[in-house]
Design brief:
44% of the residues lie in helices and 3% in strands. By secondary structure, the protein is mainly α. The chain has four domains: 125 residues; 43 residues, no CATH class; 204 residues, no CATH class; 148 residues, no CATH class. The strands form three sheets. It has a two-stranded antiparallel ribbon with strand order 1-2. A hairpin with a 7-residue loop joins strand 3 and strand 4. Helix 1 runs parallel beside helix 6, helix 15 packs across helix 16 and helix 26 packs across helix 27. It is globular and about 90 Å long.
Amino acid sequence: MLLPVLAFCGALAAPAAGDTRTPLDFERDVRPILADACFRCHGPDAETRKANLRLDLREDLFGIPHQPTALEHIVEPEHPEASELFRRVSSTSDDDRMPPPTAQRQLSPEEIARLRQWIEEGASWSGHWAFQPLAAVEPPTPKNLAACRNPIDRFVQATLESRSMRPAPEADPRTLLRRLSLDLTGLPPTRAELDAFLADTAPDVYEKQVDRLLASPRYGEHMAWSWLDAARYADSNGFQLDPDRTAWPWRDWVVEAFNSNMGFDEFTLEQIAGDLLPNATQSQILASAFNRNHPINGEGGRDVEESRNDYVRDRVDATATTWLGLTLSCAQCHDHKYDPLPQRDYYRFSAYFDSIDETGGGEQGDMPPLLEYTDSAGRALKVMVMRDRPEPRVTHVHLRGAWDALGEVVEPGTPSALPVLGDAPQNRLGLAKWIVDPANPLSARVAANRLWQQIFGEGLVRTQDNFGAQGDRAEYPELLDWLAFTYRESGWDTKALVRSMVTSAAYRRSSACTPEQHAADPQDRWLARAPRFRLPATVLRDQALLTSGLLVEKLGGPPVKPYHPGGVWEDVSFGRLKYEQGHGEDLYRRTLYTFWRRTAAPANLFDVSLRQRCSVRVIRTDTPLQALTLMDDPTYAEAAAALAERVQKEGTGRIAWAFEELLSRPPSALEARTLESRLAALRTYYSAHPDEASVVACAGERADPPESERAEIAALAGVMTILFNLDEALSRE
C-alpha cells in the first residue's frame, strides 16, 4: 500500500499550471478524514491523547511549531512540505508515518492527496458545522427558477444545476397521492379519495389533499410511531419477569400532540419537565412520562442504587440523542474520543436527572411516582411520571463510569461546547428551556432533520443519532439550516414544516431513475429523483387491514393483542408469561395500538426498534421473513380472504378492482392476464379440494362466508396474497 501512496502524493507535489481540481471544503472533505483517522489519538479524550496534540483544535493545527526545535508547524497554510501533518501522513518511515502501521485505520492515497490539496489551498478551517449558531439563510436563485415550487426547491435546483444533473419529471397523480397518503398517514388512499383527487381540476387540487391528510386523525397516529421509538415506549418493564405497565396514556398524549399541532417547543418542555411547569395540568404531568419509558429492572438482590444510576443514564442517552443528536453516552467512562464532550460534561448533564424521585416515598419502596389519571372512557389509571425529590442529590463524576466509584462533585450543566444555560433554573425545566432556546444550535437542526427523514425516507444528515464529528454531514447544509431556522421562527409549527416538504417539487418527482442519474448519484443524495424505499412492517399491516375492509379506526385506548405465534412469550419468560390473544375489534386496530412487550416485540414486525433504548434511525430490511410473514401470518391470511370477499361482490373486472384498491392504479394488460391465469388455476384446485378452500376462505375470526362461496373466495384470496407481496405494494414509490 505504501508505494502507491507515495506515487500518488508525488504526482501532486507540484500542481500543474491551470490546475482544475475542485476546491475543497474543510467540513466536507477534510474534517471527516481527521476525525476518522486521527482524533482517536489526537482528539478530545485526554486519557488516550498522544504527544499532547489535538487535531480538532485550531490552535494546535496552526499554532507554534509542534516541537520547540522544529521548523515545521503542524499545518503551514499553502506549504505542505513545511507542515508536520503532511510530512507524517506521507512518510516512508514506519517510525514517522501517521497513522502508525499498527493502526487499523490507514489513510488511502486519495485521502493523503486531499490533505495536501487542502494545505496548498490555504488550509481553511471552521468549527464543527452542527455546533455553529443557527442563522437565517437566503435561498439561492437557480437559473431555472420556474422549476421551483417553494424555497426548498431553490436549494435543490441550484445544486442540480451546478452538477449538470437533470431532475426527474413529476410523478403521475396516482403515484403522487399514494405516496402522500402513506407518508402523512401511514395508509394508502381509498378508492373514493383517489377518484375525488383525479376528478378535481382546481389548480390547488394537490395542496387540498395535503391539508386534508394533515387534518386527519390518522396523521397523528402515523407521526407518533417514530417518536415512540425515540422514547423507548413499551407496555412492559423488561428484564427477566417483564411485568406489564400502564404507559399507553402517554402514547395517546403523543398522538394528540401531533394531531393538535402542538408547538415543538411546548412538546419538548412538557415531556422533559411537564411536572415542573407552574400550576402543571394533568396533561402536562402525563407528558413527563417520556422519561419513565425506560426499562425497569426488578431483579431480586440487585443494588437499588445501581438500578437508579442505570435509569439516570438511560434518560441522559434518550434526551441527548432525541433532541441534540449527540452521542453523549460515549463520555460516560472517559472523555469523548471524537467530539468536545469531556466526561465531566456527561455527569453535569446527568445531574438534571439525578434528583428524580424513583420510589414515590423517599429511598424506600419499589414504585416510582404515579399520576392518578382518568381517561376519556372513565377508567381510573396510575401512570408513572416524573417528580423531583425535595432535596436534590449530590452528583459526582463516576470514575471509569462505575456507578459506585465516585469522583469530583459537579453541578447541573449543559455541554461546554454549546452555549450556556443562562438564567434558567438548574433543573429539568431549565434544561428543557435551554434545548429549545434560539441560542442552542442543535435542537432545531436535529428536529428538522428527523421530519425530513420521516417524509423523504432519509435525513439530510443520515446519521440521525450523531451530529458529531463521526456523523454524516448534511448533503444540503444550507437547506437544513433554512428548514431549522424556519421551523423555529414559525413557533415550531410542525405541520407547516411538513407541508412545505410535501408541496415541494423535490418531493413530487418521479422515483424512476435513469442510467445517467444512477451513475452520477446512485444513492440519490442530491434529490434529482424521489426516493423509493420499502414500507415498514407497521404500514404494511395497516395497509392490508384497510384494503381488506377489516381496519377498525378508533383513536387511543389500552393496547390490544392481535394474532401472535404461540409459545413466544412463554419461551422468553421461562413459562411465566402467556399471550392471551384479543378478539373482535382488538384484532383489527392499527399497529400503533399493539401491546409491546420488551422481551418479545410483536412477531410480525420484522424491522422495528426493540424499544430497549432510544432509537431514532430508520430500520429497513428485505429479510425473507418479510415474505413469509406476508404469505402466512394470520393477519395477512385473513386480510386476503376478507379482500377476496370484497372483490367477489364487485362483479366484473374484479381483479382490476382489487389491484387498483391496493396500488392506486389499474393493472397493465400483461399483469391482468397473469393474475387471471393464476385465479383460474386456483379455482380449479379449490373446487377439487373443498376442505382446503374452507381453511383459506375462513381464515381468522371474522364471520365465515357461506360454504357455497368458499372455493371462489379461496381462489381470490390466493391472488390477493400475490398482490400483498408485489414489490410495488411493499414500497413507497
